[in-house]
Amino acid sequence: MRILTGIQPSGAAHLGNYFGMMRPAIELQEQGQAFYFIADYHSMTSLFDPEERRANTRGVALDFLACGLDPGRTVFFRQSDVPEVTELAWILSTLTPMGLLERCHSFKDKTARGISPNHGLFAYPVLMAADILLYDAEVVPVGKDQKQHLEVTRDIAIKFNQTYGDTFVVPEPRIREDTATVPGTDGQKMSKSYGNAIEIFMAEKALRKRVMGIVMDSRGIDEPKPDAAENLALRFLKLVAPKETTDEVVERLQAGGYGYGDLKKTLFAHLWDYFGPAREKRAALEADPNYVDRVLADGADRARAIARPVLQRARRACGLE
Ligand code: ADP
Ligand code: TRP
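# tryptophan complex -> structure
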């Protein structure tokens, strides 16, 4: 089984990235040949600071490695180290109806937030299709926000195969229902670009502050909270604490005499512990300044070896060779 996924270097990895994509992807490594990459070309649609892109690329790579991505087994690379993907994106764009892209929620959401869209943002799903099809990927672990992009990829692959003959593998998304959409501290979808993220390797003080800033209702400590099982801080706690802990916290909230401040302190402690081992691993990896570069260079070689013949197959199919 060929597994592939990507993450943009647009900020540090957060709980949504971790539970929606990274953890499932790390688990899938054992079940086939995995290709995981840092989508730096994609980040260009919304990030315009070169130093920040460099720093985030290294940072997100460290985040993923610290969480258990095994670069001996998995091909871990930077998207732009295989520039062949941009040629394939062009080829695919000629088979992509405008209407298909106009209907994409992520594009519509971004423009609705007042971002004035560049062509790259509009064409984003075509580059994503190229990412996936270039490696003959069969399974793509992602959060729910990417579901529609996977549908676009499938449509494009099918259209290419119909037009030029059987060339591409038609991939399947792999979305975990329980963590498909992790909310942010404001209750909307957690995202690097919404200012509502809890980053998994935040410094202690910053993490405490972010947790204390989770938006709750105004009921005081003494009031019983019968709907406690649904509240936002509890949804986070469920991700990182054992069931006995969350059950006990729900009971105490329901009974009254236990406030949101207490809940948030418990949440902070569990978050801090949950990512403790990965935090230590990250510090150890970071101590070797060239480690990430070596991993990504090796990944680029292995990725290119797969990508080149697939691109050639596509070029031949459509008459470029
Ligand atoms: P962001 O939206 O924060 O910029 P990315 O677009 O780089 O993050 O997403 C990387 C991966 O993490 C994708 O598979 C995406 O579906 C997943 N993901 C991002 N945010 C969430 C979330 N809040 N809940 C679940 N999965 C998420
Ligand atoms: N668009 C994805 C996101 O923002 C990142 C990504 C780029 C990706 N190319 C991909 C994910 C290919 C899976 C497969 O989350």
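# post-check
DSSP finds 14 helices and five strands in the chain.
Residues 2-182+289-317 form a domain with the Rossmann fold fold (CATH 3.40.50.620).
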